[in-house]
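Example for tutorial group B:
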C-alpha cells in the first residue's frame, strides 16, 4: 500500500439548489432589531457565509452561527457526526479512540496561548451543539464532537492536496494566478460533500475568506483583503515507514502544542505581508504536533512554508519558506528539482535541506506533472486563468491516480468505479475542491465535487467575490 493511502484530511463539498438566505436568530427582541452578524446563503455548490464581528462578541457570533446552521441545514448534525464516525473508523486501525482525540483538542483549547476570540467562538457554538453524550454515528452532534470538528488538521492528521502559482512575467496579467486542490477519501464524500462553504470573517476594516467546510472556523484555504492567500497541506514524516506503522506520531507532552490551523487564521487576519505570515507560522516558540506545509501567495510571488516538526528525532527541522529558486535537499534527485522560473508548486513532501524528504510515488509523479505542465514557461509561454485550470485540472488521459501523475485526482475501485469502503481495502482519493484565483482581479473559480458523484474532470464555476 502506498504511503498516501494513509492520508486524510477532513474537508467537504455541497451541491446546492435554489438560493436562499437565512439570518441568525436571537431570543431577545431588542437584539432581533439590531443588525444581525450572521448570514448564510445557499449557492450552487456551496454555502455563502458572512460572519461580522464588528459590533458583536465572538461568543455571540459563534452562538448565532450555530443556530443559523441548525436552521439552514436540518441534517447538519447527522452529516458531521457520520463524518467523524467514518474518520474514527479509519484511525481506530492505529489504536486511536475518540477519548484520545478529545483529550488532544481540549488541551489545544485550554492552552493559554490559544487565541481567546476563537475559543469564544467555539464555546458559543457549543451552546447550540450541546448534546452531552459522545456517541459517534448516533445522528447527534455533542459539544465534544463539535470541538473535535474544529481541530481536525491538528489532532487527526491532514493528508494530501496540492497547490501552485504563476506570477510576474510568467502570467498574462503580471500578477499571481493560483491553483489549489483538496483531496479527500472517497468514503466521506457522500457525507460531508453536502456542506462546502465559503465563509467571510469581517471585523471592522478587516476581512478574510475561508474556502472549506460549513461551521469550521480554522483556516483551510484562505484569502484576506491584503491580497494574501494561504492554504494548509500535509507533509508526511518518515515515522510512517516504521513498524508498527503510526499515521499520527503525536507528542506525549501536550502542554506546549498549538493549533497551526487557527494560528494561520490569526496570521491572515492580522498581517499584510507574505513574509509576516511565514515568520509567524515558523516562530521557534510555535510548537505544533504534526508536520505540515502552508502554501502562501500574494499578487507578486508565492512560496511554501515547510514546517518540519521532526518528531522522530525530537528537534525541529528546517522550518522556513521555500521559493522557486530555493536550493533543495541533496536527497532530492535531479528529476525532482525545480528548473522553472515564474512559478512554484507543492505536493505533500518536504524538499528544503535539513528536512525529511520522502520519495512517495504519489508525490514524485504529481511533481513531475507540474514540471512538465510549466515547461513552456522556459520558452516564453505565459499563464492565464484557463491555463491554470488546465494545470490543476490535469490528469493523464487514462488515469486519475496520484501515482500516475494526476493533479486533479479521480481514484475509484477498479471493479465498481465507485466509492470504496473503509475496511481492509486501500483508501481511494478524489479532488473534492479545486480553486483557481486571479489575484489581479480577485476573480475566483471553484470546482466542487458533488455528494452523489465523483468528477473525472473539474467543473469550474465562477463565484462572486466574497470580499465585496
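The residue assignment follows.
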Amino acid at each position: 500500500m502506498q504511503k498516501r493511502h494513509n492520508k486524510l484530511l477532513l474537508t467537504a463539498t455541497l451541491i446546492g439548489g435554489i438560493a436562499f438566505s437565512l439570518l441568525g436568530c436571537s431570543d431577545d427582541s431588542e437584539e432581533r432589531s439590531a443588525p444581525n452578524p450572521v448570514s448564510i446563503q445557499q449557492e450552487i455548490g456551496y454555502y455563502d457565509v458572512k460572519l461580522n464581528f464588528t459590533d458583536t462578541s465572538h461568543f455571540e457570533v459563534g452562538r448565532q452561527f450555530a443556530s443559523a446552521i441548525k436552521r439552514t441545514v436540518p441534517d447538519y448534525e447527522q452529516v458531521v457526526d457520520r463524518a467523524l464516525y467514518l474518520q474514527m473508523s479509519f484511525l481506530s486501525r492505529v489504536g486511536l479512540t475518540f477519548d484520545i482525540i478529545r483529550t488532544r483538542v481540549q488541551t489545544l483549547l485550554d492552552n493559554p496561548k490559544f487565541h481567546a476570540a476563537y475559543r469564544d467562538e467555539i464555546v458559543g457554538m457549543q451552546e447550540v451543539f450541546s448534546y452531552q453524550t459522545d456517541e459517534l454515528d448516533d445522528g447527534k452532534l455533542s459539544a465534544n464532537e463539535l470541538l473535535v470538528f474544529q481541530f481536525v488538521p491538528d489532532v487527526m492528521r491532514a493528508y494530501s492536496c496540492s497547490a501552485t502559482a504563476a506570477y510576474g512575467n510568467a502570467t498574462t496579467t503580471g500578477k499571481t494566478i493560483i491553483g489549489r486542490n483538496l483531496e479527500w477519501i472517497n468514503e466521506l464524500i457522500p457525507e460531508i460533500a453536502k456542506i462546502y462553504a465559503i465563509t467571510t470573517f469581517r471585523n471592522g476594516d478587516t476581512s478574510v475568506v475561508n474556502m472549506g467546510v460549513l461551521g469550521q472556523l480554522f483556516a483551510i484555504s484562505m484569502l484576506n483583503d491584503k491580497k494574501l492567500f494561504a492554504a494548509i497541506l500535509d507533509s508526511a514524516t518518515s515515522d510512517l515507514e516504521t513498524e508498527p506503522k503510526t499515521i499520527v506520531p503525536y507528542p506525549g507532552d501536550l502542554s506546549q502544542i498549538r493549533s497551526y490551523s487557527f494560528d494561520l487564521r490569526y496570521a491572515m487576519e492580522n498581517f499584510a505581508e507574505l513574509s509576516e505570515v511565514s515568520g509567524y507560522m515558523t516562530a521557534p516558540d510555535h510548537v505544533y504536533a504534526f508536520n505540515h506545509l502552508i502554501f502562501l501567495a500574494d499578487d507578486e510571488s508565492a512560496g511554501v512554508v515547510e514546517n518540519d516538526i521532526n518528531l522522530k528525532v525530537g528537534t525541529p527541522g528546517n522550518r522556513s519558506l521555500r521559493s522557486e529558486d530555493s536550493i533543495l535537499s541533496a536527497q532530492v534527485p535531479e528529476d525532482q528539482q525545480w528548473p522553472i522560473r515564474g512559478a512554484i508548486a507543492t505536493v505533500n513532501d518536504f524538499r528544503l535541506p535539513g528536512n525529511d524528504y520522502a520519495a512517495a510515488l504519489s508525490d514524485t509523479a504529481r511533481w513531475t506533472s507540474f514540471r512538465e505542465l510549466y515547461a513552456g514557461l522556459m520558452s516564453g509561454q505565459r499563464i492565464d486563468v484557463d491555463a491554470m485550470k488546465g494545470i490543476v485540472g490535469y490528469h493523464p488521459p487514462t488515469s486519475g491516480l496520484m501515482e500516475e501523475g494526476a493533479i486533479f485526482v479521480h481514484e475509484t475501485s477498479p471493479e465498481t468505479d465507485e466509492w470504496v469502503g473503509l475496511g481492509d481495502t486501500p483508501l481511494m482519493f478524489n479532488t473534492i475542491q479545486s480553486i483557481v484565483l486571479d489575484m489581479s482581479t480577485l476573480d475566483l473559480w471553484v470546482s466542487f465535487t458533488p455528494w452523489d458523484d465523483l468528477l473525472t474532470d473539474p467543473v469550474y464555476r465562477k463565484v462572486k467575490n466574497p470580499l465585496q
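Residues 21-153 form one domain. Compare this with the pattern of hydrophobic and polar residues in the output above.
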